[in-house]
Design brief:
This protein has 242 residues and is of the alpha+beta class. It is 19% helix and 36% strand. It is built from four helices and 14 strands. The strands form three sheets. Strands 1-2-3-4-5-11-12-13 form an eight-stranded antiparallel β-barrel. A three-stranded antiparallel β-sheet has the order 6-7-10, with no helix packed on it. A two-stranded antiparallel ribbon has the order 8-9.
Length: 242
Amino acid sequence: MALPWALAFLSLLPLLNAQSSSCVNFTVPITNAVVDQISGKWFYIASAYRNPVYKLFSSAFQSSFLYLDTNRTDDTVLIRQYSTILDQCVYLSYHLKMQKEYGTLSRPCKLSGGGLLCGMVFSPLEEGTIGRPHGLTQKLSLPVMGTELFGYLILTQDPGIFILAFSPEDKQNMGLTLYADKPVLTLEQKREFQEQVICMGLEESDIVYVDEKQDQCGPLEKEHNEEMKKEKDAKGPKEGGK
């Protein structure tokens, strides 16, 4: 799903030291417990950006969910992202790098005609072409400075959500994205995200929500899961297993 990285976390006492301030510290390292915490399926719920271009890109996405397959050995995360854009399901698969010491996730930018382009990690933006009626197309890509895109992960006291923060030092381009383990937020989860948005200096009016009822990716997700199950069954149990 990107889909944009330094990771910071609020409490979750078993995972991190508690944070007393409503604004987080963006230098909390990623532990193995945190890696386990963010693994699995997550729904992209909302984003908040001041930059009107980023906000426009975010509003193009009707819904999005993703699978995070973490690898502790090489400190990478395989992302399988399903996004509904213009009533079409768009599937993307890519890797992120984890910088555990600094609490960051990153994705290299791609070289394209006009320069460097980056999809926003964990946000439903990606370099590519989406078909539109009457043969029109819409390019989904963002120009960025540098060769790699970084984002901060914020875990809250609620293990059912996490937040990613981008460019917190850049008032014009800073942003937050919210992910949840269910497609619909509780009132408390929504309040938590709104507080972080305001704490970062953004406005509630900057928040753009998706609508999971518009999802068109269910059939493709089911097809992929069935294919993976067949592949797993074909390989049989691991050596020494039963």
